[in-house]
């Protein structure tokens, strides 16, 4: 059996779930992979990319290299071009082709959770890199409206101008957040709020403004004490934290690299284990 080689270019990441996730997917498909974690300094990036070009079938990229890596690829998919960054690179006959699968991963996770997107009203907190990827996919999935809430309004305006009239910038104040959440169908935290090393939400009153049964998703999973998801669940709202999105972006990576797709049954089982804290 051929062994495929792939990896993750990162900096100071030593507990990534990606290698274990990909091993689960490979077993489901019946293939063998060798996954390497490349923790590098910025000055090592070009040399690492050259190594990946010569020796790997594909690789992932995480912060702080998602934007910089676009300088080294030969081609970029529309997802990477529109988002201005890449997290998944295909190596094909020595050429590097960049994709961005972060937002795709969230859409897949929501699909598996039974959350419909088309025609819905969405509130997204954040306007940085991951928010761009999510916004790109929300547009493709036919949302009715997206309120982009951000502390720096010019950043939210820039995102909205990139993706069209369905996207509207909103200042990050308690009053504005409550107003735009009124009767919304989905709230996404794509910001650093609640992450380790950053402030958590001062108030979660805006959750009470969401329509009954609205879904809540926090893309962060670094802080087990983050307040958003427990508060949403206490109100009876379906809510999830970031690992399912991370796992599902790997589904798209497998499609790009190998032309193979792990089964939904496999992905659901994996997500259940991740959410329960079980070792993958």
TrEMBL record:
The keyword Nuclease does not apply. Keywords: Amino-acid biosynthesis, Aromatic amino acid biosynthesis. It is an enzyme of class 1 (oxidoreductase). One of its GO terms (biological process) is aromatic amino acid family biosynthetic process. Residues 8-89 form the Shikimate dehydrogenase substrate binding N-terminal domain. InterPro entries: Aminoacid_DH-like_N_sf (IPR046346), NAD(P)-bd_dom_sf (IPR036291), Shikimate_DH-bd_N (IPR013708), Shikimate_DH_fam (IPR022893), Shikm_DH/Glu-tRNA_Rdtase (IPR006151). Pathway: Metabolic intermediate biosynthesis; chorismate biosynthesis; chorismate from D-erythrose 4-phosphate and phosphoenolpyruvate: step 4/7. It catalyses: shikimate + NADP(+) = 3-dehydroshikimate + NADPH + H(+). CDD domains: NAD_bind_Shikimate_DH. Residues 113-191 form the Quinate/shikimate 5-dehydrogenase/glutamyl-tRNA reductase domain. Signal peptide: none annotated. GO terms for molecular function: shikimate 3-dehydrogenase (NADP+) activity. Its EC number is 1.1.1.25. Transmembrane segments: none annotated. This is shikimate dehydrogenase (NADP(+)). It comes from Anaerotruncus colihominis DSM 17241. The lineage of its organism: Bacteria, Bacillati, Bacillota, Clostridia, Eubacteriales.
């Amino acid at each position: 059996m051929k062994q495929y080689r792939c990896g993750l270019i990162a900096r100071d990441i030593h507990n990534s779930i990606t290698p274990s996730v990909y091993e689960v997917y490979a077993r489901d498909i019946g293939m063998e992979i060798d996954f390497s974690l490349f923790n590098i300094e910025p000055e090592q990036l070009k040399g690492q990319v050259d190594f990946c070009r010569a020796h790997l079938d594909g690789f992932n990229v995480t912060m702080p290299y998602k934007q910089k890596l676009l300088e080294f690829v030969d081609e970029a998919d529309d997802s990477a071009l529109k988002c201005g960054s890449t997290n998944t690179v295909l190596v094909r006959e020595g050429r590097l082709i960049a994709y961005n699968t972060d937002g795709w991963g969230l859409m897949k996770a929501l699909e598996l959770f039974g959350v419909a997107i088309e025609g819905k009203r969405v509130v997204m907190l954040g306007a940085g890199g991951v928010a761009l990827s999510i916004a790109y996919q929300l547009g493709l999935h036919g949302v009715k409206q997206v309120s982009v809430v951000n502390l720096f309004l010019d950043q939210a305006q820039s995102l909205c101008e990139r993706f069209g009239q369905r996207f509207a910038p909103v200042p990050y104040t308690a009053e504005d957040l409550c107003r735009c959440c009124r009767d919304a169908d989905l709230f996404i935290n794509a910001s650093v709020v609640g992450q380790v090393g950053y402030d958590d939400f001062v108030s979660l009153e805006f959750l009470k403004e969401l329509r009954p049964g609205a879904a809540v998703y926090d893309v962060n999973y670094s802080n087990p004490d983050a307040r958003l998801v427990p508060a949403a669940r206490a109100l009876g709202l379906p809510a999830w934290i970031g690992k399912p999105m991370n796992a599902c972006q790997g589904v798209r990576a497998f499609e790009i690299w190998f032309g193979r797709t792990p089964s939904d049954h496999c992905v659901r089982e994996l997500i259940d284990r991740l959410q329960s804290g079980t070792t993958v």
